[in-house]
Amino acid sequence: MRKSTVLFVLLSLPAFGQASWKFAVAGDSRNCGDVVMPAIAGGVKASAAAFYWHLGDFRALYDFDEDMKPAPGKPPLQIFGYNRTAWPDFLRNQVGAFAPLPVFLGIGNHELVARTRADYVTQFGDWLTTEPIRKQRLADDPNDHSLRPYYHWIQGGVDFVTMDNASGDQFDDAQLAWFKKVLAADAKNPDVKAVILGMHAALPHSLGCDHSMNESAQGEWSGDVVYHQLLDFRTQTKKNVYAIASHSHFLMRDVYDSPYWHDHGGVIPGVIIGTAGAVRYRLPDTAQGMPPRHGRPERQHHLRLQGSRPHRRPRRRRHPHRRRHRRLVLRPEQGHTRADLGAVLGHERPVRADSEVI
């Protein structure tokens, strides 16, 4: 029986006074993204999605990405050459595959390997100043001419908020203050019917907590602040909220349906989708005993964002803080080629990213 691999999540949004529409989201396209992302782009275009949202980790940077290594017999890749071409390679081979579809970028921890946020803004400034982002920034504050990795834009009745938690010192005070203002404006704006938060690492105390904002004291504290702000916003406004992350290289849905959040305020619908080309991880131990719908890394999943459904209390599960994962990578030095990617990912056929909304 043929296996299919989850490459991206396609989300269908309800009609807020207009026709229903879709967008696609995933993160972590390092390692083999030059092969996987064009397949995602094909699926996204075929689905008639409005845009693609990348949640960070474009290139590995701590080591050569497997899809950038030369074939056997070719001159080896040098460190300086790799560092100079890694991000341009991402833009050319991955982002370029989506043209003319809009692509929104979020920052991940690998963007800060031997680099700074200033480097990130310099390289990806064109994607931080697209018309929807620039227009929204100036609408929020006509005197705000600063570029930051975090931003938001309103589209189709939804406020899409890209956050920056790419390092352990985030969210910092400035970003928390900015997010508080964004939610306050959304609460007063009758055109905003829902808020979707996108970030690299999942907020604390999820079912994927071992590789999330729980990994630093500032991350855990500030992530809790943001989570409770979302809960309060939903309670006060009756508008829907969602939280999407990557960082962990698997698909897991209902990630905040955890014992912790059942006991500390409530559950927010959320997804981890880090499957855009990075080495794949096994589902964490917290997945044991969960309903199969929470996480099946071997199968395609699509989500329909329609509202907050009632959440039943799950069985108590241990919440270990250790990571178990399996590395599946291309190794050109062993004679692997891009054609072998299907075997690496567990396919019997070439990579494909067809999708069907359910």
Instruction: Summarize the main sheet.
Output: 6 strands, mixed
Q: Which structural class fits the helix and strand makeup?
A: alpha/beta
**Rg to the nearest angstrom?**
20 Å
Mass-distribution shape: globular
Count, helices: 9
Strand order of the largest sheet: 5-6-7-8-10-9
Distance between the termini: 22 Å
The CATH level-2 architecture is identified as 2-Layer Sandwich
User: What is the mean pLDDT?
Assistant: 82
> Which topology does CATH recognise?
Transcription Regulator spoIIAA
The CATH first-level class comes to: Alpha Beta
Oligomer: single chain
Name of the CATH superfamily: GpdQ, beta-strand dimerisation domain
Spans of at least 5 consecutive residues with low confidence: 1-7, 296-334, 336-358
Number of separate structural domains: 1
Q: Please state roughly what percent of the residues sit in beta strands, choosing from under 5%, 5-15%, 15-25%, 25-35%, 35-45% or over 45%.
A: 5-15%
Proportion in helices: 25-40%
Provide the succession of SSEs: EEHEHEHHHEEHEHEEHEEH
Tally of strands: 11
